[in-house]
Amino acid sequence: MAESTADGTAADDPPEERRIRRAITEIRREGWKVAVIYATIDAALATLVVNLVATFLGGVPALSSRLPVPRVIFRTLRETGGVTLAEPTVSSAAVVGAVVGCLVFVGEVALRVRRPLVEQFEAANPALGESLRTARDAVRREQGSRMARRLYGGVLADLKRASSIGLLDVRRVAVTVLLIAAVSIATIHLAVVDISLAGLGDRSNGVQTGGTDAEYAGLQDGSSILGEPEDVPEGSENLDATVGTSGSGSGDGTDAESATAYEDSGFGGSESVESQRAGFAEREQLEDAELIREYNLRIRQETNDE
Amino acid sequence: MSEPTVDVDKLQQRLARVREEVGKRIIGQREVLEGLLVCVLADGNALLESNPGLGKTTMVRTVADVTDLDFSRVQNTPDLMPSDITGTEIIREAGGEREFVFERGPIFANVVLADEINRATPKTQAALLEAMQEKQVTAAGETYDLPRPFFVLATQNPIDQEGTYPLPEAQTDRFLIKLVLDYPSYDEERDIVNLYTGGGSGGAAPAVDKVLTREEIKQIQSLVRELPIADDVRDRAIRLVRATREAETVDFGASPRASMGLVLTAKARAFLRGRNHVSWEDVEAMAAPVLRHRILLDFRAEREGLSTDDVIAGLVDEV
């Protein structure tokens, strides 16, 4: 048996047969490329569509939850690229989208290469199809007759003029790319506007739900943003600083003054801020004030008694 | 063993010239001429069926004239003996001595036109067909090879069947193809009349050039067999022949010899058309000539008014 080379040709093949074998290998490679191109764009589209749908259907618990990013990735990013992720989690919708995309990619590649790639090329180049098929069969039968060699020469000349672009349906690829762009824009738009089927019912009541608050729970965790606490060196200079105040806090400003103050220094004292402050004033401190007051009254009473 | 170097392009150009030269004498009948040339290239024999006066003899003689081949004609009659065709031993005196010498018959030619073969007795038909098949003649214990290339073209007259001996199916199977000449169109018939009744030629057939030698024909016959055929085309051709044995409308199907003939004639046609491979189109074109004399239709086909060519065309579409 003839010794085979890397491209499947036999070392003692006549030159024409060897070139035909190489050409067939090249055609198969082109077929793989086309299969990967189709699979890649289709997988990208599938990923984006799944992500979009999952984002839109935010109420599904399995899709709205966030999955932790493995610490290894986190650490690697920080060590290699100096990138520190604010939150080591990833949307489960994105994960589902990626998995679907991978499945689409693998499935489509498998489906496309199931039909012999050279036959696909022959179908895409009908003028060359019969002669190429005949040449393939002749090479397989190791037919080295004069007419076979003549056929090989003709096929090789035709192959130089042929193109594998016929394997690619350009219109289909263009449509898919446009769809990818459209779905991407829709995804971004959805993320900005924050439309979700899950939140529509609750928001219609005008009441902020706990579910929405939960989205900001992570940002309130200061340690995750600021990092580990560390000692700060004491300053050596003393500086006098004057902080300007708006009129609203004084209690005697008018509405016009308040408006002017708002334009100059921003929002300065409103009910919402006060309620926020009240929210941060803990009950224990209020109770302490009452206690102090009670103690003060008792001390005064005792003083008066004395 | 090294193969002789041949210029295939040159040979294919010569074949194109052959068609041009034959066209000087034969108006129309392009398919029949192509079939005839295919038969020559495939080294086979042809059965030609037509009504009288359609130029069968002229066509065959012209092919012989442009191809540098010897031509002979045998007019078959019921009293024709086998030895009249193959030859016979005669006593010849030479130098005062008498000796038996084999006198070669008309079959010792490159192109033999056996006119109205169905008028010869079965015994004579058998002798002719045996020579045709074996490419040799045996007389008085001696075997004589026929010249190569050897090509028999037998004609049959579809009308006036009285006093004829139709060829048995087993005998017709030995013909590679059967060609059917039809009447020419009006324009073609007018051109024929002008060509052969005009004053320029004096009624004689126009002169043709010899453009293909017998050696070149042998080379082409060798190249035709080397022509590659795709597996699927070959398998489909075989399925087509096998379908004739299974078709409801066919009483008696074609033999494996038909499969070989179909592939070989398809190769010859591809070569004739300047291709280096066999196309399914070649098989389709040769299906009727190769199969039409090898199958017998069932009564159902006759009842439906189907001809043999109709049935074959249906089978070609099916496979």
TrEMBL record, chain B:
It comes from the Archaea. Keywords: ATP-binding, Nucleotide-binding. One of its GO terms (molecular function) is ATP hydrolysis activity. Residues 46-177 form the ATPase AAA-3 domain. Residues 242-312 form the ChlI/MoxR AAA lid domain. Gene3D superfamilies: Magnesium chelatase subunit I, C-Terminal domain, P-loop containing nucleotide triphosphate hydrolases. The keyword Electron transport does not apply. This is MoxR family ATPase.
